[in-house]
Write a structure and sequence with these properties.
Helix 1 (27-43) packs across helix 5 (139-160). Helices cover 45% and strands 19% of the residues. By secondary structure, it is α/β, with parallel strands linked by helices. Strand 5, helix 3 (92-110) and strand 6 (115-122) form a beta-alpha-beta unit. The protein has a domain at 21-55 and 71-145: Lumazine/riboflavin synthase (Rossmann fold, 3-Layer(aba) Sandwich), CATH 3.40.50. The chain has helices spanning 27-43, 62-72, 92-110, 125-132, 139-160, and strands at 2-3, 8-9, 18-23, 51-56, 78-86, 115-122.
């Protein structure tokens, strides 16, 4: 069972390869996000050897790294970007949070594979820890639920619609 918002649904991801791109900044939080994501992938039938994890310095680097994964790993079926941006005393939070969100959103529209957004933007470390916790918000698992739902949709569409030039079929 994978969660992906308001509804829980069974999603079988057996045979799928998924890349986790994880920010190292706020590592204690992002490692929990990655653990929740990995747990959700395994629960959905993805085998351990079909989960690859790539580390990046911070949230700003997530979108370019996701693009590289797609370009250099044609066998990856979906990507989940994970990070944590915590408000500080300067406008740096706003700049990084917006850049990460906009970069990943533009990339998600451009790519022809699902890209999950698992970047926390919180006011405090405590909020981030709660949202990342597999026993709390489990936003890593939730990001996987959303990306697997998108992958299932893409697969259903590919079964009923003719292929479009430039797009990979799932």
């Amino acid at each position: 069972m994978v969660t992906g918002g308001a509804h829980e649904r069974e999603i079988d991801a057996t045979g799928k390869r998924v890349a986790l791109v994880v920010s190292q900044f706020n590592e204690s939080i992002t490692s929990e996000l990655a653990a929740g994501a990995r747990e959700a992938l395994l629960a959905a039938g993805v085998i351990e050897s079909d989960i690859e994890e790539h580390q990046v310095a911070g949230a700003f680097e997530l979108a370019p790294a996701c693009r590289q994964v797609v370009g250099l790993r044609p066998d990856v079926d979906a990507i989940v970007a994970l990070g944590a941006v915590i408000r500080g005393e300067t406008p740096h939070f706003d700049i990084i949070a917006e850049a990460a969100a906009q970069g990943l959103q533009r990339l998600a529209v451009e790519l022809n594979i699902p890209l999950g957004f698992g970047v926390l933007t919180t006011d405090t470390r405590e909020q981030a820890e709660q949202r990342a916790s597999r026993h709390g918000g489990d936003k890593g698992g939730e990001a996987v639920g959303a990306v697997l739902a998108q992958l299932a949709l893409y697969s259903r569409l590919a079964e009923t619609e003719p292929a479009v030039r430039g797009f990979r079929t799932p």
